[in-house]
């Protein structure tokens, strides 16, 4: 390289980028042929093996543009060899530099588009195609190409990842994509071949129809924002997929525990197809495919679809079936088998169920909740909402009914039509406080996490629902613990694996206690309809009343001999300990705390989401670990461990504050060398040190960047520590996990640390430096205040070492 480039490279070696910019500006000020010098220096850098080539190229181009705009506004570019310009654009220059390069040499849009077009007919998995697509996105040229030049081939080949690149998180392209997909599915997709061939000139298009419909629905769910009137064809396509799911539920029994009653199924289907001729015809067609003439006749009558209005093949099917048609034609006589399961009947009368849709009934509910305000009260809790089958984050899914059960009454609170009319600061807040923030109330529920999340999304005033610990008892946790520790305590336990697989959840818990499962066939019904059907009311009663019924408590309590539980107030001795001396096992409700402790250097086992809480006892006994848990599981675990070996961190605080409290309570002193001395993912303490050049090559391969574009100086470099074909450490078998680095910072580090067990890659970035500053002086004598910024902070988005 020239002395100028060598000097510039030295500035980058010492991270003196600002001085480098000054050198470039001074260089062009003194140049008699600045454009020619720019081209010559770029050619040298492209052929160079210098580690900083890409950064220097960017510096040269940006600084030249700055110099030109500030000092030489009237200077016009000379005529440059077209082959060199084309090579720079299509192959050599980093894409990030192209807008400035184009401005410097005043390259016209038409010229660029004509240069790019031939590259877009190459295979989509080629580096040339990917670079061309990224250039189009970088220059914001997407709409300057016809659909059949970029977007349609990606759609037909289901290249979702490249479509996402094309969209570039910009609403104008998202709307363009949705509009194009909506057009393709005109007339239910029956014109798809004609549209592609005649309108977009794609001869003999090949695609997988099922895969294409999945892709269309995926992007409709992401960007359609439920604009059914604007994109009616995609809305119908989504509804057809939902109908297909419901048909499979009915005829193939896909829902396991969530089987639907005939009323429930008919209700959901009616809600989808009513008033839409395309959907009603589609329903009758798929019923014909299922050879269910009885259901066809029923829906033809329900939807007012006479025989002559149906497709010819359906008419022929009906004609052929007439001689063998059953006499009755009600939906209950379809081919679906009637359930023979004997379900448990709740011994409560219907008049004990109060539907709360008025202020008078709401006041009755509050009176029941606050009747004995200073006495312990058990409250059964559950929620119901209309099911949505499209898995879209934009769906306006709302909780419809909240079930609240007291000792002799069950209240069904109409959240959808009544509760939102109540004053949130007084009337709504009073209910929220009693349910989720009252020391005298114990909320009994089953699988509360989903209910609580939906409740908060619908009514943020219930935001304590997810953080409640002392006032909430999730019976699913109790069931899970007892099933693993002492299943024989249930009076109706069975070794029949088929029965165990069929009946799950609360239904199975009721069967274990009373010998019969609950009927769950109304679970997926339309909970937004008013009035609720009687079957819905009885289902809502059944799912909540079991949780507080006295017979239920007698059945379980008589079989469980629990030792008394007292507060764990014994504090460890005053001896200062180092993180290497500590061994914890963290319950699966405290994942964040577990990772924070690993960051601090403590040997910490974290239970998986599906692991029983009692696994903590096994780890504690086998490996001499201290258990960290909370809420009801803490009480259970503490009763099985020695005093002082099970501790409950502070509730309702962030993980970093919990970690600081644990370190302070157990007198653990954290020094700088302890920070990130363990892998936060797998708890391993052994790391391999890998050089920056190896990791830069791995990053380019992982993110589908060509070395020619970003790292031409490493084309002939042979990695020392990484097997690039297998993407493992040399001689290792564990794939490397490299996340968090970006195009902006992947070249900023010369040393990386790879976990030898799980392959996670770490580096000493900004987070590592902040950890050192915040944690150096934590000792047993320095308690952490509520508003302090000390403590361990875990950043999962960017791994730092």
From TrEMBL:
PANTHER family: 3'-5' EXONUCLEASE DOMAIN-CONTAINING PROTEIN, EXONUCLEASE MUT-7 HOMOLOG. Residues 371-541 form the 3'-5' exonuclease domain. It comes from the Eukaryota. Residues 582-684, 742-770 form the Mut7-C RNAse domain. GO terms for biological process: nucleobase-containing compound metabolic process. This is Exonuclease mut-7-like protein. It comes from Rotaria magnacalcarata. Residues 554-577 are annotated as: Disordered. Residues 557-572 have a biased composition (Polar residues). GO terms for molecular function: 3'-5' exonuclease activity; nucleic acid binding. InterPro entries: 3'-5'_exonuclease_dom, Exonuclease_MUT-7-like, Mut7-C_RNAse_dom, RNaseH-like_sf, RNaseH_sf.
